[in-house]
Specification:
heterodimer, A: alpha/beta, Rossmann fold, 5-stranded parallel β-sheet, 5 helices, about 40% helix, B: alpha+beta, Beta-Lactamase, Helix Hairpins, Heat Shock Protein 90, 3 domains, 5-stranded antiparallel β-sheet, 10 helices, 12 strands, about 50% helix, elongated, binds adenosine-5'-diphosphate, binds magnesium ion
Chain lengths: ~120, ~425
């Protein structure tokens, strides 16, 4: 079965570009995007994912809340936190709460993709 | 008030003489009815004595009280100043007696408005902040309360009493707090802005990279996309640098010898001092305790202050660095330590106008054509991180003294 990847960000340029990048790559991942924490949880409840990549600052359910409920209800699912905060103030918090990595925006697409592929394969 | 008092005193003396004369006369045979006359004078004299005592008592209170007291008549002319007032204004009563009180204010217009309120509109001040100017030109903020004096039968005001205190200490503290506030707000603001800018940057960058990937590396479209990415990285670097200012990295404090730090920066600056004709002198105190600071952050602070001093002395001059231990004001002050190491960096440059003294610590405040205006705000922020503080004193045309206060190493029990 194809690995499932969920990309969550209220910045649609981010979700769209990541999505495009994966569907045009040789990997046959199932890539889904969500533009809010609420939408992400809906998608996850429908069918669980192998990896969730989420932004922190989103209106409504934010990245940390999403991380917590995923880790509680779907402990198998990996979570990567990404943020546009310039300092690593949230890094420790993210890792402590169970995220498997922390990425600062703007990121290098190549490195970010490698990180995701390593986790999924 | 004092003139009235003088008159009473003169009257008492005259009375005293009169009384002595009577006393002397009493040895002569008395005419009928005279003893009664003498008795009345005795009584009157006693009353005067008592009155004099009451006067002295009140006078003592007024003269020893730590608040400044000034009285004026309805023409706003000074009729009395107590000792505290004379000290605060650094003046002689004879100089100011009978002159208009306006001259004591830093701003004549402000004085005009205030006195009009008091004498014409009969409004009183209650702990109002005003600025006075002492005889030697120093301006100090004062908390002022006024009371009207009225004559029972007359309609208008016969004068007013000014009671005030020098509040520069309170004002300095308040300024320091405001500055910290501003920097904190600044930090939050810039963190917010940085976040808001970084998000679209991230979107542009990843989109450009997807485009780049979809062409072969030699393709001009891939090259264009890669240029977009480079420019984004450049903007992001800029943002990072600004962000670092807003939230300096946690100070890595350790025990350091402040003199070594100053000497290190001096070595760096020495060629420039020489070129700009600046004489450098250090007056370091003996056996100065170590300070608990982040060395590189402190170097940055000293460097900023040296650079500013050089800029302030385009025609050359003298830069003196003093060190020592100073008691910080009260425990209730911003600092917990009772003793701190101080570094005074004094230049003989063009100085800073009084009205700009609080502005210079604001981010982006600069008077230089090639200035950025971040030196002092960063320094202030860095010192705060290190448990220190920075203050400034300046005389226009004479020079400025920047004082850096640093926590003493032995006082830290960590
Ligand atoms: N030693 C000094 N003498 C006179 N003015 C000074 C001195 N230090 C700082 N200033 C004033 O404070 C302003 C802000 O200083 P700073 O924050 O270091 O920024 P910049 O040096 O880039 O202007 C200067 O532009 C100058 O007007
Ligand atoms: Mg400067």
């Amino acid at each position: 079965m194809a690995k499932r990847l969920l990309i969550v960000d209220d910045e649609e340029t981010i979700t769209f570009s990541l999505y495009q990048s994966f569907i045009h790559s040789k990997k046959d991942y199932e890539v889904v995007t969500a533009s809010s924490g609420e939408e992400a949880l809906e998608r996850i409840h429908e069918t669980p994912f192998d990896l969730v990549v989420t932004d922190i600052m989103m209106p409504g359910i934010d990245g940390f809340e999403l991380l917590n409920s995923v880790k509680r209800d779907y402990p198998q699912t990996d979570v990567i936190i990404m943020t546009a905060y310039g300092s690593s103030i949230y890094k420790e918090k993210a890792l402590k709460e169970g995220a498997c990595d922390y990425v600062e925006k703007p990121f290098e697409m190549k490195e970010f993709k490698k990180l995701i592929i390593d986790l999924l394969d | 008030m004092s003139r009235q008092f003088e008159n009473k005193k003169k009257a008492a003396i005259t009375l005293n003489k009169f009384h002595s004369a009577l006393e002397a006369g009493s040895r002569q045979p008395t005419l009928p009815g005279e003893p009664d006359y003498k008795y009345k004078y005795n009584l009157l004299h006693k009353r005067f004595r008592e009155l004099e005592q009451v006067f002295d008592f009140h006078r003592g209170i007024i003269q020893t009280i730590s608040s400044g007291i000034i009285t004026i008549n309805s023409q706003a002319e000074i009729t009395f100043m107590n000792r505290a007032a004379l000290n605060l204004f650094n003046c002689d009563y004879m100089q100011v007696q009978g002159t208009q009180i306006h001259a004591l204010f830093a701003d004549k217009n402000e004085a005009e408005i205030l006195l009009n309120q008091i004498l014409t509109e009969q409004k009183m001040c209650e702990s109002t902040e005003v600025h006075f100017r002492s005889q030697n030109g120093d301006i100090f903020p004062a908390g002022l309360t006024t009371t009207l004096q009225k004559q029972p039968e007359q309609k208008g005001v016969s004068g007013a009493i000014f009671i005030f205190r020098n509040i520069s200490n309170i004002t300095n503290l308040r300024r320091q707090i405001e500055r910290m506030d501003r920097l904190a707000t600044m930090g939050e603001l810039s963190a917010g802005i940085a976040h808001e800018i970084r998000n679209p940057l991230a979107g542009i960058k990843s989109s450009a990279q997807v485009i780049e990937e979809s062409f072969s590396p030699g393709d001009f479209r891939a090259q264009l996309a890669s240029r977009i990415v480079k420019e984004i990285d450049r903007s992001n670097d800029l943002l990072k640098r600004f962000f670092n200012f807003a939230r300096p990295s946690r100070a890595r404090q350790d025990f350091h010898n402040i003199e070594m730090i100053i000497d290190g920066v001096y070595l760096l600056m020495a060629p420039r001092f020489k070129k700009k004709n600046i004489e450098f002198e250090k007056k370091f105190a003996d056996a100065l305790p170590q300070v608990y600071v982040d060395e590189s952050q402190l170097e940055q602070v000293v460097l900023n202050l040296f650079l500013n001093a050089v800029d302030a002395m385009p025609e050359g001059g003298k830069l003196t660095v003093f060190t020592g231990v100073r008691k910080t004001a009260e425990k209730s002050d911003l600092h917990e330590q009772e003793q701190m190491v101080f570094v005074d960096i004094a230049d003989s440059g063009n100085g800073i106008p009084q009205s700009k003294l609080e502005k210079i610590f604001n981010p982006f405040y600069t008077t230089k054509s090639d200035g950025v205006g971040l030196g002092l705000s960063i320094s202030s922020r860095l010192l705060e991180e290190n448990g220190g503080a920075i203050t400034v004193e300046s005389k226009l045309g004479k020079g400025s003294v920047f004082t850096v206060l640093l926590p003493i190493a032995t006082k830290i029990n960590r």
